[in-house]
Amino acid sequence: MAERRRWSDDFKDRAIAASLEPGVNISALARTLDITPSQLFGWRRIAAVQAKKVERQAPVEARAARTRRVEIEIGGAVLRVSADIEEADLRRLLRAVREA
To answer: Are residues 13 and 33 in the same domain?
Structure first.
């Protein structure tokens, strides 16, 4: 009986990342990696479950920090704001930075 093969976490992570690229054929990718498509799909499923667990455990502040941000540079000052900032609030901030 053949010895069971083992793959490093790094190999699995790279394979999963490659499989998530737009337009990738999972079966073709698996062949190039010398694994079966079912292995790759299994690794993806496990990674998705783990990601959901981490997300549920992440504190509210950490989730808030991952929101999209916009950087605006004005006269050497950099203003970082949430991408969903209200226009009136943004105008007030910009005016305050210009007047400072």
So the answer is: yes
pTM of the model: 0.54
Give the model's confidence band at 58: pLDDT under 50 very low, under 70 low, under 90 confident, else very high. low
24 and 49 share one domain: yes
> What value does the mean pLDDT of the chain take?
83
Question: Has residue 2 been placed in a domain?
Answer: no
When pLDDT is averaged across residues 55-63 and rounded to a whole number, the result is 63
How far apart CA 95 and CA 100 sit, in angstroms, is 9
Does residue 1 belong to any structural domain of this protein? no
Q: What pLDDT does residue 62 have?
A: 60
Q: Give the containing element (helix H, strand E) for 82.
A: strand 77-82
| The length of the chain, given as a count of residues | 100
CA atoms within 13 A on the CB side of 24: 17
Q: For residue 92, what are the domain limits?
A: 67-99
